[in-house]
Structure of CC033 protein:
Amino acid sequence: TTKFTSASDIPMGFVEKNVKLRGRLHHITEKGLEVEHIPISVPFITPIQRKWQSKGLLLVRLAGVELDPSGMAWLQQELKPKQTIWFQLLGRDDLALECLVLVNKGRFLSVCLNEEILRQGLGRTARIEGLHHDSRLYWKLHKRLLRAELKALKKSKGIWREESYSERIRDLVSGSKFVQTLKQFVNWLRGSIER
């Protein structure tokens, strides 16, 4: 029932047990998602507790994901301010939480943003900070993230998109010295005809 307003407020036991917390999204920044923690509500007690709860936002980072600038734009498009999200604690430092972020899509379906960003090709898989490198959970999550990234790679999505053959030829031709000289000649010719 306690409202957490900073990463250091969250007990280490919660992080070690990978507890899921609920929050309300406020901002998407370069550093991560700024989320207001929503504590579990208990009838009669919660309204009284709200009067003494301090205000503050948690900084939630997407664990195991190195976000591309296009991924940031996608997040800003997909997530709405004041939207409720779930975040599973994987690690923390004094300033931020490393989490798996889940968003409800419909009544029974939720999407893991960490995986979805990689599946869309909007980021790369990175080391999951906060989890021990030799733990089973680390390798289970890392394998899930790598699978999502591989799907984007196979479908040539996002950062994995390759230029088509015609796009490469067009870029080569338009950048060649011969074509540049030809354009200058045509412009000179037009200018001299108009005079």
